[in-house]
Amino acid sequence: MKITCDKQELSAAIGSVSLAVSPKSSMQSLEGILLKARSGRLYLTGYDLELGISTSVEARVMEEGEVVLSARLFSDIVRRLPGDVVTLACNDKMLTEIKCGTAEYTLLGISAGEFPELPALTETVAVSLPQNTLASMIQQTLFAVATTDSKPVHTGSLFELEDNLVTIVSVDGYRLALRRERANVGRTMSFIVPGKTLGDLLKLLGDCDDPVGIQVSKKHIVFEIGACMVVSRLLEGDFLNYKSSIPQGGSTSVVINTREFTDSIERTSLLISDRLRSPLRVQFGADQIQISCSTTIGKASDQVGCKTQGPAVEMGFNNRYLLDALKAAGCDQVKLEISGALSPMVVVPCEGDSFLFLVLPVRLKTE
Fold it and tell me: What is the reported pLDDT for 287?
């Protein structure tokens, strides 16, 4: 193999595929990036047997070939090269020369035959979403994905395709996040994408309306973002019947300014830490919300205006769970629907139904 290509483009491509490289593996090839030089392009692939990412950059290919190089070392070298054009050359013994400007390296690569092939999808269902829309949907639901594997299926997000709607749902036992968006959906189906895949995908999505092509098979999903392809296994199992978990017809409805409520919670939460845990005491009144907490080092209280319909109610919350839901809303005002002091609180937009968050309350001790 012998090629030349732009250093900046190569460095960006390495950064993208490195998201799928295993940091430590019994298979040395999984700690590397597969490089393939073919007909005017250099193709790069990272794969950890769960998630695979491949992309390509324009290159002048003098000699076609392929090799696997250590992802960490290759990334560090390319990022620090002094010139603008990189030359890569690999011989039959996998000795790979990297030249750029005044710098020159020789690395011992691994045969491409030792790199596992990405899964090939059959009998797929296709759907397309703009990049910024998919990014927004992931951002608004990823915070509620479970981080413990007591129920492995909840370490991913449920995707539902039906009635020309795409719905993403995440749950972790303490909160629920739902986001829906209209799309041209060919058929009804549901599948569960691992949270890690969605977190890495978010790093690749841009703030533009270029389409992301999505192909789903029985066990895998592929996202096509420009020249980049992300393939991931799907999680298997029974996801929570989330529709039955959403309270219907709250007795108290509270409209709040999202930023003001968030700032008030953050001020009151300054006394709370991992070592000093305490629930927030939140009293929803007719035209203001009283927020307070008490720990062994002191007390804090604050208040913020609101518009309330229905009876006053006092609830306890984990401050972080409440903040996560409010920050994910992404709009100036939200409506809080409350069915009782110990029922989950529903956070929805004041208009429309694009998102819904559930936050479970904490039982307060009587002072």
Answer: 92
The first and second tokens of residue 170, run together, are 């995440």
Residue 109 to residue 111: CA distance in whole angstroms: 7
CA 181 to chain centre: 17
Residue 340 CB burial class (10 angstroms; 0-12, 13-18, ≥19): middle
352 HSE (CA, 13 A, CB side):
10
- Per-residue pLDDT tens for 72-131? 999 999 999 998 999 999 999 999 999 999 999 999 999 999 999 999 888 888 899 999
- Among 250, 253, 262, residue whose Cα is nearest residue 332: 262
- State whether residue 29 is helix, strand or coil: helix
Distance CA 94, CA 1 (A): 10
Which two tokens mark 323? Answer: 């903040």
Both tokens of 3, joined, read 């090629």
Contact 334, 351 (CB under 8 A): no
Please give the structure tokens belonging to residue 21. Answer: 């490289």
Helices marked H in 81-190 — which ranges? 131-139
Q: How far is CA 194 from the centre of its chain?
A: 9
The DSSP secondary-structure symbol of 357 reads E
Cα–Cα distance, 265 to 307 (Å, whole number): 18
Strand segments (E) across 183-297: 189-194, 211-216, 220-225, 228-233, 252-257, 280-284, 288-295
Q: Which of 72, 158, 67, 157 is nearest to 114 (CA)?
A: 67
Q: Which residues contact 171 (CB under 8 A, 6 or more apart)?
A: 144, 146, 154, 177, 239, 240, 242, 245
> What distances in angstroms separate CA 292 from CA 105, 289, 301, one per listed residue?
61, 10, 4
| pLDDT the model gives residue 272 | 87
74 to 34, 248, 336, 349: CA distances (angstroms):
11, 55, 50, 47
